TrEMBL record:
InterPro entries: Hexapep (IPR001451), Hexapep_transf_CS (IPR018357), Hexapeptide_acetyltransf (IPR051159), Trimer_LpxA-like_sf (IPR011004). It comes from Streptomyces candidus. Keywords: Repeat, Transferase. This is Acetyltransferase-like isoleucine patch superfamily enzyme. Belongs to the transferase hexapeptide repeat family. GO terms for cellular component: cytosol. One of its GO terms (molecular function) is O-acyltransferase activity.
Length: 253
């Protein structure tokens, strides 16, 4: 027997109302979360409860932050971008007196991707313009296992400083181990585990990481790059022209 038209119309209206409520609730949640993120972000002007040794102009820590302690011994340069859920720690635990000198130092223009960890039980120095992908792990401390009769976690750890030179790119899920010293403009492949010294202008990959490409002066990159060199933007091109070109690409596609 066919359904009554009024019943069908009522059901359709009710479904439409339910869908509208869900869309409205979703938009409200997203808008609310954006407001929370904006309010919870940390900067020099709005440090919240975090009292860093210094935090530079234009630097921002996205909300929510990861674990952060030992802030008086952490110095952040200008225009750094610290992603969500990034852990920054100085010292083995909170509320220690670590002396007069900084323990964790970030240069200017450093980017730390979402979920990264920088664990500085002793000194970590990250140079200017270093870019980290998400979930990079940098640590100065490793467990020791000398005594076969003691649980590894109960044995006193070993600590060595870490130094990452300016201009480095560290890929997703890379691990930088205690004692690592990376030179200038080093590329660390995703998932690499780095220890020891890495010279300037080198590409490292693997676990443990090894050099897979280097800049050899007059000979250029060896082995040679498999991709063509990027074409530089002409010096006389204005930002407005670049925006116009991007719009043309969108229309063409």
């Amino acid at each position: 027997m066919p359904k009554n038209r009024n019943t069908f119309s009522f059901s359709a209206s009710r479904a439409a109302l339910t869908a509208w409520r869900r869309r409205t609730t979703t938009r409200a949640v997203h808008d609310g979360w954006r407001l929370i993120q904006q309010a919870g972000a940390v900067s020099a002007q709005r440090p919240g409860k975090l009292r860093f040794g210094s935090i530079g102009h234009g630097t921002k820590l996205a909300f929510p932050q990861g674990t952060v302690f030992g802030e008086p011994w952490i110095r952040l340069g200008d225009y750094c971008i610290i992603g969500e859920n990034v852990t920054l720690t100085a010292g083995m635990m909170p509320d220690l007196d670590l002396g007069p000198d900084p323990i964790l130092t970030l240069g200017n223009g450093v980017v730390l991707g979402r979920g990264s960890h920088v664990i500085a039980d002793t000194t970590v120095t990250i140079g200017d313009d270093c870019y980290f992908g998400p979930y990079v792990y940098v640590t100065t401390t490793n467990h020791s296992y000398d005594d076969p009769d003691q649980p590894v976690g109960k044995q006193w750890p070993r600590m060595e400083p870490v130094e990452i030179g300016p201009g480095c790119w560290v890929g997703t899920n890379a691990v930088i181990l205690p004692g690592a010293r990376l030179g200038r403009n080093v590329v660390v492949a995703a998932g690499a585990v780095v220890r020891g010294d890495v010279p300037d202008h080198a590409v490292v990959a693997g676990a443990p990481a090894r050099i897979v490409r280097r800049w050899e002066g007059e000979d250029g990159w060896q082995p040679p790059l498999r991709t063509p060199a990027p074409v530089p933007i002409p010096a006389d091109v204005t930002p407005e022209q670049l925006v116009a070109l991007a719009e043309l690409d969108k229309e063409a596609s």
